[in-house]
Write a structure and sequence with these properties.
Mean pLDDT: 90
Distance between the termini: 48 Å
Helix content: 55-70%
Order of helices and strands: HHHHHHHHHHHHH
Low-confidence stretches: 15-20, 307-311
Largest sheet: none
Number of strands: 0
Number of domains: 2
Strand content: under 5%
Structural class: mainly alpha
Radius of gyration: 23 Å
Length: 311
């Protein structure tokens, strides 16, 4: 039954594309780049169209771009050459005159940059997650101490191994054990939130010390790193990145997405008025579902809604 339905919809789509091409003089990609608003609506539609293409040349181009982004090669002058080559391939396959359709070239190039920039970002984030926190690594240790200084600027840390770490929400005397699941990514997320959004982070930290609704700031933060990564992997986060990124998506943009999740989760947690920390899993699941629902709106743009927002 599924195969029959797939055949029917595929055939119908081909007939519709042929009809629209004959009546408008434009291929599907042109109609999307001219007709859809910029950002997620246009980029997502281009992405879907490319993935459904039956053209051998387009399929080969997609495989090439996947390999480039998976190996983090979409950068600098190389990026410009790759984008130029991708656009040239599509112009040739679709028989589009770039001198007449120069706006298509511009719009389509932007879409390609965002689609495979997102894929490259995922590879970069995964790579960071796979780096284990190493207490013998001076750079890792420096970042950990920067986190303390950002969150507790008026309190001096007595020792590297200290119960004081529990004041910012780590489980024991040494934070390194809490980074096992998310690796260096968990630390860099926390550090970015604490330094780039200093006032919101202090605001959230104060809530984590609430006598009734308190929680472990750092542990919750690492859990939210996991959530942000899952949203990135599943593609749900594409709405955010496609609507926010002005150029090739960067790791900084992922940190900003994480910071938004942390700030909003804290607000949602307090709204739920949990009886105890044992309700964390259920509340986190509901919050994640709410975020997924929000991301289904292709026009959605997420920002930390405070006066010090620097996004």
């Amino acid at each position: 039954m599924y195969n029959i339905w797939w055949f029917f919809t595929s055939y119908l789509r081909s007939v519709l594309k042929w009809f629209l091409r004959r009546t408008t003089g434009l291929c599907e990609l042109q109609r999307i780049c001219y007709g859809e608003v910029s950002g997620a609506p246009r980029i997502s539609a281009v992405e879907k169209s490319l993935n459904l293409s039956k053209s051998p040349q387009i399929k080969k181009l997609i495989a090439y771009l996947n390999d480039v982004s998976d190996n983090l090669r979409l950068k600098g002058s190389t990026e410009r050459e790759i984008l130029k080559g991708a656009v040239s391939t599509v112009l040739l396959v679709k028989r589009i005159n770039p001198r007449i359709h120069f706006q298509f070239v511009k719009n389509f190039s932007k879409c390609v940059e965002q689609i495979w920039g997102y894929r490259q970002l995922l590879a970069e984030v995964e790579s960071l997650r796979n780096i284990k926190f190493d207490s013998n690594n001076l750079e890792h240790e420096a970042k950990l101490l920067q986190l303390w200084e950002a969150l507790m600027p008026s309190v001096e840390l007595d020792n590297r191994i200290s119960k004081q770490w529990q004041d910012i929400g780590f489980q024991g005397d040494d934070p390194k054990t809490d980074f096992r699941g998310m690796g260096l990514l968990g630390l860099e997320n926390l550090l970015f939130f604490a330094t780039e959004y200093r006032m919101p982070a202090q605001h959230v930290l104060s809530h984590s010390h609430h006598p009734v609704y308190g929680y472990c700031f750092a542990i919750v933060g690492i859990n939210l790193t996991s959530m942000a990564l899952h949203l990135l992997r599943s593609g749900d986060a594409k709405t955010y990145f496609y609507n926010t990124s002005k150029c090739l998506p960067s790791i900084r943009l992922f940190h900003q997405f994480y910071s938004y999740l942390f700030y909003e989760f804290d607000r949602y947690w307090l709204e739920c008025k949990p009886v105890d920390i044992m309700q964390f899993s259920n509340i986190k699941l509901k919050f994640e579902n709410n975020i997924r629902t929000s991301l289904m709106d292709t026009n959605a743009v997420f920002k930390i809604n405070v006066s010090v927002d620097t996004v």
